[in-house]
């Protein structure tokens, strides 16, 4: 039985609390889903940078469509894949605000490929948090552009045959090639050290925007235990072992200015 | 302000700047590109926002974002581009943010051509995207009128927090005529309280078109419908010409509406008592006025640069009160006064 947020008795000592930027509500994410972890990291970063009152989030279409319920910052909800375009519209008319998109791999690497590449290439002052779980979570586990070769999904019942369905799309590698991007990194969030490292990367990506340097994106290799048909522990291990083989971790682009930022 | 010789596309763009347009996002397409080109210089000059997007899909979503941020924002396009914007139009309608869009209609379907047409009537008035919504659609028939309608479009979009389209066509966009621009208005200094501007000293603002649960979404839809009913009750606009004693009634809008004012003159000279109703809003539609005029007339002639799209709305409004004939030209052909006259004479003879 899980304890619901609102049921925590007041007389208990608080040893670990919500960041101010994260709303005190239960999320709808499945157990073992990385969305919840990364939400918290984004919230902690917003708090640490003291930007809660001037941050605007752009939610995607995907499992994190309701992200706007889980933060205490202003939010809009974009059409599938269009978050970077919507964010560009907000940022260009509100240059004093901090604008971030939060997107899944179907959202960013399939239907929204054009929007993310052009936002990066223009050097739009945006921060993108990109959750790569190699599958379409929300619609019930169909193949994503990031689905691994041979991986069984509800739309690749015999495993992804790359000769037919194409190859895993490597967005960080592609985005790193754009002139307007200043910081593109691929991280993971499957154990404590990698979660800490991902938080640092997210902070750096926000700082890149706040310092007017250019476009920044943090890809986080994630999990979808529900649609991978694994338990949370197995999913974490699978992500760590299998996904990193196809999607090598590391910073694909980091300009000297970004390197100099204190994250 | 003095009159000057202005091209329709430049005129609507400059009128928008003078009405306090803060941001424009667009993608080039004939026959509206001069609007985008004009704004690319003027908005930057004024220290405002101009961005040429990578597609109409991106453009409308940038517009959507800027509208959520609470600024006066617009885009312009033509048929193929409007089709790509349909996704964004629906989201904009569902989340009730004010947006103005100019559509300089060209010949379709498909790539069609770049000649003037009116075949996006149904698209704009009845099915601009998925779900139950309608944009308010204004239909100018001259360069002066499109200038005036830009100001009106912003006013209506903001008053109702809705999508307003200006339905021009290739000839309104491309022709030059003498017209007067409005004086320069300052850009608004504050943003509406519903906009996303950062949750400083207030609860967070969330703008979404998502409403999970059937009852929830029905409530949202009912509110939209209520608003549209208010628009329908208050914002019908049209012009009538010589309708007081008319035996026959012409109905046409935009460029064709303007051509029909010449038809009225010619017909009157020839002794046929004709009047013209020119809708200035395509939605809401002047159905009550059309019914009233049709009841006094022997016959109605609808003229369009389409296969008969507004015709269906006229038929619904007239509801059998008078016989209706249709004259339509397709694919970018603009109907001439004498061909309309010929149909009018036929209608006159048939109904005597
Ligand atoms: C235009 C459009 N096409 C399809 C969908 C259906 N749809 C919703 S979410 C989704 C995939 C989301 O996958 P991903 O971005 O990987 O996010 P996840 O759910 O895995 O977090 C799809 C195809 C939609 N909402 N809109
Ligand atoms: S379906 Fe997958 S991505 Fe969606 S919440 Fe559950 S575990 Fe996370």
Percentage of residues in DSSP E strands of chain A: 15-25%
Mean pLDDT of chain B: 97
How big is the Rg of chain A?
18 Å
Q: Give a quick account of the main beta sheet of chain A: strands, pairing sense, barrel closure.
A: 7 strands, mixed
Q: Please name the two chains that share the biggest interface, counting residues whose Cβ lies under 8 Å from a Cβ on the partner chain.
A: A-B, 33 and 39 residues
Average pLDDT confidence of chain A is 96
| Secondary-structure element pattern of chain A, one letter each | HEHEHEHHEEEHHEHEHHEH
**Structural class of the helix and strand makeup of chain B?**
alpha/beta
In the residues of chain A, how many domains can be counted?
1
Element pattern of chain B in H and E: EHEHEHEHEHEHEHEEHEEHEEHEHEH
Flag low-confidence runs of chain B. none
The CATH architecture category of the largest domain in chain B equals 3-Layer(aba) Sandwich
Low-confidence stretches of chain A: none
Write the CATH fold name of chain A.
Rossmann fold
| Principal-axes shape call of chain B | globular
Protein architecture, described:
The complex is a heterodimer of chains A (263) and B (352). Chain A has 263 residues and is an alpha/beta fold. Chain A has one domain (27-259): Thiamin diphosphate (ThDP)-binding fold, Pyr/PP domains (Rossmann fold), CATH 3.40.50. Chain A is built from eleven helices and nine strands. The longest helix of chain A has 19 residues, at 192-210. Chain B is α/β, with parallel strands linked by helices. Chain B folds into two domains: 4-234, Thiamin diphosphate (ThDP)-binding fold, Pyr/PP domains (Rossmann fold), CATH 3.40.50.970; 239-351, Rossmann fold (3-Layer(aba) Sandwich). Chain B has helices at residues 8-18, 33-45, 56-68, 79-95, 121-126, 143-160, 170-174, 214-234, 254-269, 287-296, 310-318, 337-351; strands at 3-7, 23-26, 49-52, 73-77, 99-105, 136-138, 163-169, 176-180, 206-207, 238-241, 248-251, 274-279, 281-283, 299-304, 324-328. In chain B, the strands form three sheets. A seven-stranded mixed beta sheet of chain B has the order 3-2-4-5-7-6-13, sandwiched between helices. In chain B, helix 1 packs across helix 6, helix 3 (56-68) packs parallel to helix 4 and helix 10 (287-296) packs across helix 11 (310-318). The model of chain B has no long low-confidence stretch (mean pLDDT 97). Strand 2 (74-77) of chain A pairs parallel with strand 9 of chain B. Residues 29-30, 33, 35, 63, 133, 137, 224-227 of chain A line the site of iron/sulfur cluster (SF4). Iron/sulfur cluster (SF4) binds next to helix 9 of chain A.
């Amino acid at each position: 039985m899980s304890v619901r947020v609102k049921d925590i008795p007041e007389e208990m000592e608080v040893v670990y609390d919500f960041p101010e930027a994260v709303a005190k509500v239960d999320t709808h994410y499945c157990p073992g889903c990385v969305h919840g972890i990364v939400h918290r990291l984004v919230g902690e970063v917003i708090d640490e940078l003291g930007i809660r009152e001037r941050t605007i989030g752009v939610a995607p279409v995907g499992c994190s469509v309701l992200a706007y319920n889980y933060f205490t910052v202003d939010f809009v909800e974009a059409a599938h894949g269009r978050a970077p375009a919507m964010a560009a519209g907000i940022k260009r008319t509100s240059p004093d605000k901090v604008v971030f998109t939060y997107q899944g791999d179907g959202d960013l690497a399939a239907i929204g490929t054009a929007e993310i590449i052009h936002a990066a290439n223009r050097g739009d002052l945006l921060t993108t948090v990109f959750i790569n779980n190699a599958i379409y979570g929300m619609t019930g586990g169909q193949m994503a552009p990031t689905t691994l070769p041979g991986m069984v999904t509800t739309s690749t019942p015999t495993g992804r045959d790359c000769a037919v369905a194409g190859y895993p799309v490597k967005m960080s590698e592609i985005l790193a090639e754009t002139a307007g991007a200043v910081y593109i990194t691929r991280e993971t969030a499957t154990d404590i050290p990698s979660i800490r490292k991902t938080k640092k990367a997210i902070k750096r990506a926000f700082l890149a925007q706040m310092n007017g340097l250019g476009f920044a994106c943090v890809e986080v290799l994630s999990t979808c235990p529900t649609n991978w048909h694994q338990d949370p522990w197995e999913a974490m291990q699978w992500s760590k072992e299998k996904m990193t083989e196809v999607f090598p971790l590391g910073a694909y682009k980091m300009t000297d200015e970004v390197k100099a930022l204190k994250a | 302000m003095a009159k000057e010789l202005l091209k329709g596309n430049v005129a609507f763009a400059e009128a928008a700047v003078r009405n306090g347009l803060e941001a424009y996002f667009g993608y080039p397409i004939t026959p509206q590109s001069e609007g985008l080109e004009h704004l690319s210089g003027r908005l930057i000059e004024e220290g405002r926002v101009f961005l040429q997007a990578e597609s109409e899909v991106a453009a409308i979503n940038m517009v959507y974002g800027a509208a959520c941020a609470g600024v006066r924002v617009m885009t312009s396009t033509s048929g193929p581009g409007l089709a790509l914007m349909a996704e964004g139009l629906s989201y904009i309608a569902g989340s009730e943010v004010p947006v103005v869009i100019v559509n300089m209609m060209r010949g379709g379907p498909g790539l069609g051509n770049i000649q003037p047409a009116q075949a996006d009537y149904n698209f704009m008035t009845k099915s601009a995207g998925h779900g139950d919504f309608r944009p308010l659609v204004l239909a100018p028939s001259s360069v002066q009128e499109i200038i005036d309608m830009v100001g009106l479009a912003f006013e209506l979009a903001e008053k109702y927090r809705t999508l307003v389209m200006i339905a021009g066509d290739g000839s309104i966009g491309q022709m030059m005529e003498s017209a007067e621009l409005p004086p320069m208005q300052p850009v608004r200094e504050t943003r509406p309280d519903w906009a996303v501007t950062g949750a400083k000293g207030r609860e967070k603002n969330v703008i979404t078109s998502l409403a999970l649960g059937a009852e929830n979404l029905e409530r949202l839809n009912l509110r939209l419908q209520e608003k549209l009913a208010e628009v329908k009750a208050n914002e019908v606009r049209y012009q009538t010409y010589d309708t007081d004693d008319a035996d026959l009634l012409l109905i046409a809008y935009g460029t064709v509406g303007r051509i029909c004012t010449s038809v009225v003159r010619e017909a009157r000279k020839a002794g046929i008592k004709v009047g013209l109703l020119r809708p200035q809003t395509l939605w809401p539609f002047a159905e009550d006025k059309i019914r009233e005029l049709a009841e006094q007339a022997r016959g109605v002639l609808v003229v369009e640069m389409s296969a008969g799209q507004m015709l269906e709305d006229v038929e619904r409004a007239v509801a059998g009160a008078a016989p209706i004939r249709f004259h339509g030209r397709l694919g970018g052909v603009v109907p001439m006064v004498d061909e309309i006259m010929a149909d009018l004479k036929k209608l006159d003879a048939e109904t005597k």
